[in-house]
Amino acid sequence: MKQKLLFLLFVLIFPKLLSAQKIDQDRISGTFFGYSFDRFVDKIERETSYVFYYDQEQLAQIKVSLVADEHTVEQLLRSVFQDTDFKFAIDSQKRIFITQGKAMRVRFPALAVSKDTLSPVADTLSPRAEEVDSRGDYAENRIWTVGQRASGAGDVKIEGRVLLEGKNEAVQGMSVVEPVTGKVTMTDENGYYTLALPRGLQHIRLQRFGLPVVQRHVNILGPGTLNIYLEEDYLSLGEVVVTSEQPKNISQVNMGSVELDINTIKKLPAVLGEVDVIRAILSTPGVKTVGEASVGFNVRGGAADQNLIMYNDATIFNPAHMFGIFSAFNSDLVEGVELYKAGAPMEYGGRLSSVLEVKGKYGNQEKIQGSGGIGLLTSRFSIDGPVSSKTTFAAGIRATYSDWLLGFLEEGSGFNNGRASFYDANLSIQHEIDSKNSLRLNAYQSGDSFRFERDTTFSYSNQNFNVGWTHRFNEDFTGDFVIGQDLYSFGIESNLMPENAFDFGFNLGQIHAKGKFDYRLSDSHQFTFGIGAVHFDLEPGFIRPGTEESTIARSDVSRERALETALFFGDKWEVNNRLSVDLGVRYVMYQFLGPTTVNLYPEGVLKTAETQTGTEVFEGGQIAQNYHGPEFRVFGRYILNNSTSLKAGFNNSRQHLHMVTNTAAISPTDTWKLSDPHLRPQLGQQVTLGLFKNLKKNTLEVSTEVYYRTMENLLDYRSGASLILNDNIERDVIRSEGKAYGMEFMIKKDVGRLNGWLSYTYSRSLIRSAPDEIGQKINNGNWYANNFDQPHDALLFLTYELTKRVSPSINANYSTGRPITLPIAKFSYQGAERIFFSDRNAHRIPDYFRVDFSVNIEGNHKSKKLAHSSWSLGIYNVLGRSNPYSAYFVPVNSVLQGYQLSIFAQPIPFVTYNFKF
């Protein structure tokens, strides 16, 4: 009997033991030559009982070439992943999990699982909840369970925030990707994301080009929230994991845009020791300035006043300090900048050339921290942190003691005996009411004062204030509302001689309000729509007697008011995995308002005092002139492969605010003018085409863009025109039209110890008097070069991480000299000598070339110390080249003598001590 029982047990158990031994000892034989990893996995899964879990895109570059002779799967995988960063783990159910960096921990209950779902026991792997915080040392290797189990088919919505551990700072611009389905979204400015995914085990990847890839394994039971926490120093990590996902420059639809975070900006050679966000933008293709000490910049052949500069919802009319040497932004309070040379977001308008969005900080939620710097020219200090568990702030101030620098300027420049000072101050506060509502407040003020002669002081200032409210109606629908005021003023004061003392100035103010809504209809359609309004209030110029003894008469240019309203709608349409389109329309309505008096002239005659027939008076609130029209933005992107995309686009725009100037750069004495019954709004159209290619496993970005622009109703000025305190400016302007075209090339490397970029731009910017303009035309109505036309522009920037603490940088910049009108002959007329000038802008000043060198030296990396410090030192204009800013002519002893003005004609050393705590 006993023997029979043993025999029966043997019969029942032995086949299972054989089967188990077969499972445990699955062996593979065969030749794998040039197999893709997917093909290799298919063969293994067909011939064994193993099931693989991995990111197909992540392993797309892996090729398998080996000969297997009764090898185990584990032996084959070790051979395949040798000398790579990929790890694998095999659990007791023969599930193989392939990850990057760290092997997944697989010590959890052994249960059968399909590729699309986990069994209920898998729910014990992480807390089951509607809201999950994914954080900790092994966050990438755990399986996080989200939502509550419920019946139903189809995708469920997963939402959450991406934050920095320890700081609770939102991470903007992270791509959140589910590689199997190909679904992707991006975190917004508050770190929020929403993604619709199937139930079951999903693999989510987060990436931002130039930074390590982050992954999460998620068991999705139903709708829920997954907050993902990244390492505290994630944004400053130097190592990069290269993936086969399309980086942002390939995948994004928009073209003609440049995005730089503050870490990239700080790698550039600091100009005179001060990190400068404007100068960082100038180092990219298609963006130029007319020379050193120039306020403003020119984008794709447009004038400096055609750029909209935004700082935390505020419009900055003068973005520079000290003649353009420094930008108006404290870099310690800036997170990053984005320049749109074409296809700006639909909520922005009012300028023809570009939108520069400077994103300021709102403070971290963990602790009070500060930073600052002490340099030879400037000092700065900023502080940020929590006020309460739901309120944060960021504040800072910067000032200069730069009078000594003016002594370095060239003798005879008129600057070297002057005095100059500036300051700027910022305050930003953010309060999170609850998970759906947040408030923000921003205040900014800057001021400049300088004197070149003993009796004259120039000053100008920006003042900005706004409040905003963000409301999340649901995971797909968000609204953002902002209202604020922006002021810019300029003044000249002279009081050395009481009888001639005067105060001159102008003021530009605007009150603005905007409501913007973002609605995600599906993975294929994301809508943006809303309304915005701006009320302009200008004092174009005034002069007052400076003392009681002054003989200067009081005079005021008529005040101007206008209302600009815009409705906008846009759709980000993902047609398929390769083709995406951004469609948008913005309808602009503009009213020039009373009280005002409009001069009347007959049709078809030149506007002069003699041809004026009368005036028309409009009372307060009356509409003196209406202008309206649509702005279209159509951009498309087609992905040729994982590393190449082709993009094209068209956009048109309208500008109702004009700068009244006859200089190439923005000058403090320039005033502004609104479109009125005589001055039409500027109109612009642009067509662009671009090819974007990544090389060397996405470590090199190469891009080429070509563009063609046309512009109408530009302002040029008649010879001898008086632009200051001119109440009849329509008599001295010539309506003109412009065209600009060019090609921009850039190769960029931001991976590894050596990084930087090389850019080259060929461009032309031409202008002519409008063919239907009445009266004498400039250059006989022929095309001539704009004041800022510089056909060739090249820039090389390199930085090298010599050690973790020492990073030298070099910057080399070349550009064609800008146009100039020269005297070419003299003649006698009625007994006096006269000068005959060339055609307008027919000649050029010498070319520009400058090399800068700087070194950033970090302090030691001890984590526990009172403050962390660093040094920035270097030389501006290493070669001491006397680059011309302009050329001018002065009669000396009845002979016209030519002079060349250079601003920085010698090397200028700088050193700055930086600290943070």
From TrEMBL:
Primary localisation category: membrane
One Pfam entry name: Plug
GO molecular function, one term: siderophore uptake transmembrane transporter activity
SUPFAM superfamilies in the cross-refs: Carboxypeptidase regulatory domain-like, Porins
Annotated localization: Cell outer membrane
Keywords: Carboxypeptidase, Cell outer membrane, Hydrolase, Membrane, Protease, Signal, Transmembrane, Transmembrane beta strand, Transport
One term under GO cellular component: cell outer membrane
Membrane topology listed for this record: Multi-pass membrane protein
Protein name as annotated: Carboxypeptidase-like regulatory domain-containing protein
Species annotation: Litoribacter ruber
